[in-house]
Write a structure and sequence with these properties.
This protein has a single domain (about 5-135), classed as 2-Layer Sandwich (Alpha-Beta Plaits), CATH 3.30.70.141. About 40% of the residues lie in helices and about 25% in strands. It is built from 7 helices and 6 strands; from the N terminus they run βααβααβααβββα. The strands form 2 sheets. Strands 2-3-1-6 form a 4-stranded antiparallel sheet, sandwiched between helices. A two-stranded antiparallel sheet has the order 4-5. A hairpin with a 5-residue loop joins strand 4 and strand 5.
Length: about 140
């Protein structure tokens, strides 16, 4: 079908731990997108280093890898028209306090005020990133 694209959605360990996987996926499906592939795994350092390679030299890189490997992650390939843009909009701002009500992060994310932020999900930021990220998580 013309105009169809794919994106990667990750329900991060904090979302899995808080039993929010069903809520997150239900929001995606209610929007009319299709879950084309789905799996749960505990991410390896190899997967995370490849996924977050653009942050490798940043001071928060080690903490990011630690945060993303504390428990299982749910990885999903989502399909639909303008799905990259749509899932990003559903996800909301990466900062839960600033995320709009009605978005995944606005409704479900937490900022503990001590530098610890739980923003529940990751979604690809472009069709090119989606293609790269899907190849990493769904080898």
């Amino acid at each position: 079908m013309a105009g169809m694209e794919q994106t990667l959605l990750l329900v991060k360990p904090d979302g899995v731990h808080r039993n929010l996987v069903g809520e997150v996926l239900a929001r995606i499906e209610r929007k009319g997108y299709v879950i084309a592939d789905l799996k749960m795994l505990t991410a390896t350092t190899e997967i995370l280093s490849e996924h977050y390679s653009e942050h490798r030299e940043k001071p928060f890189f080690a903490d990011l890898l630690k945060y993303m490997s504390v428990g299982p992650v749910v990885a999903a390939v989502i399909e639909g028209s303008r799905v990259v843009e749509g899932v990003r909009s559903l996800s909301g701002s990466t900062e839960p306090t600033m995320a709009a009500p009605g978005t995944i992060r606005g409704d479900l994310g937490r900022d503990w005020g001590n530098g610890q932020i739980e923003n529940i999900v990751h979604s690809s930021d472009s069709p090119e990133s989606a293609e790269r990220e899907i190849a990493i998580w769904f080898k």
